Amino acid sequence: MAEKTTQYYVPESSPWPLLSSVGLFLIAIGGGNFIQQSTGVGGNEGSMGGIVLTIGVLWIIACLFGWWRDTIKESIGGLHSDQLDRSYRQGMLWFIFSEVMFFGAFFGAMFYARWLIVPWLGGEGIGAMTHELLWPDFQAMWPVTTTPDGRTTQAMGAWGLPMINTAILITSSITLSIAHHALLAGDRSKTLIFQGATIILALIFTGVQGYEYVHAYRDLGLTLDAGIYGSLFFLMTGFHGIHVIIGSIFLIVTFFRVVKRHHLDGNNFAWEAAAWYWHFVDVVWLFLFITVYWL
Fold first, then answer.
1. What b/e string do you get for 142-157 counting C-beta neighbours within 10 Å, with b at 16 or more?
2. Of 289, 293, 295, 291, nearest to 109 (Cα)?
3. For residue 143, is the peptide bond before it cis, meaning its omega torsion is within 30 degrees of 0?
4. Helices 269-288 & 161-184 angle (0-180, nearest 10)
5. CB-based contact 122:131 (threshold 8 Å)
């Protein structure tokens, strides 16, 4: 490990931001078409949404690999000064804040639908005429388990798979906190053991959520096109699942950096950033469990 510079390091021009933007564009286009193709909406039955989405995901993974490789080389080369470390920390905090706003919009949409739109369609207040003209058989209740076309679905209960996943994520936060304290104490073996346990729990969470989706589609009739409840359920839990996968990748990368002894000189920002992100993901899940599954 090279000695840390006292100069503020300004990296050279990088192609990764532009290339990553291309990957995100492919994910947005492919994901939108894939959802429409899956639900039969918009007449995109013959579209290549799934292929474009896959290409976009693989593109982003390649960009992350190249971008993180360059940043790791700068770090172990001693180019990251204390000032740059503070800049990284501020940037990560602002990024997490933007993620809070991102999920805040989803929670706002759910509360708006649940407390304003559903009662209105049920005939409360100024919605009486709308109720009589458009949906006279609609009953104002949450979750909405009857779609506009008359199809009946079942809500996902809180005390089965969701409760198991909640316990898994809470445990993962505990194991990661233990790993963090071990890292600060210079105990590399303990750090690897408990960070490895966190990664295993993260992968189990993803597997359980995948099984939950299969159960929702196969047994409950709860799909993406199952009305406002189905749409919000998959939107909120699905985006959280994506964040779990991203956090898992983050933890895996920092795990192997600990294996290579990159974080034993006090330069722990990358590891701590992964831990911040993971704890954020855990907190979001607690809100999801309470508002989407329980209440």
1. ebbbbbeeeeebebbe
2. 291
3. yes
4. 160
5. yes
Asked whether residue 57 falls in the same domain as residue 87, the answer is no
| 56-69 burial: b if 16+ Cβ within 10 Å, else e | bbebbeebbeebbe
What are the backbone dihedrals phi and psi of residue 67, each rounded to the nearest 5 degrees, phi first? -65, -50
**pLDDT tens by residue, the chain, 295 residues:** 556 666 777 777 889 999 999 999 999 999 888 877 766 655 555 568 889 999 999 999 899 889 888 888 887 777 777 788 888 899 999 999 999 999 999 999 999 998 888 888 777 766 666 667 777 777 777 888 777 667 788 888 889 899 999 999 999 999 999 999 999 888 999 999 999 999 999 999 999 999 999 999 998 988 888 888 988 999 999 999 999 999 999 999 999 989 988 765 667 888 999 999 999 999 999 999 999 999 8
Query: Domain range spanning residue 19?
Result: 1-80
Do residues 172 and 202 make contact, with C-beta atoms less than 8 angstroms apart?
Answer: yes
Which of 177, 203, 179 is CA-nearest to residue 192?
Answer: 179
Considering its fold, how many domains does the chain have in total?
A: 2
Pair 167, 264 in one domain: yes
Give first-to-last CA distance, the chain, whole Å: 52
The domain that holds 6 is classified in CATH as: 1.10.287.70
What long-range pairs does 109-112 form, CB within 8 A, spacing at least 24? Answer: 109/232, 110/232, 110/236, 110/291, 110/292, 111/291
Count of all residues that appear for the chain in the document: 295
Read off the pTM.
0.85
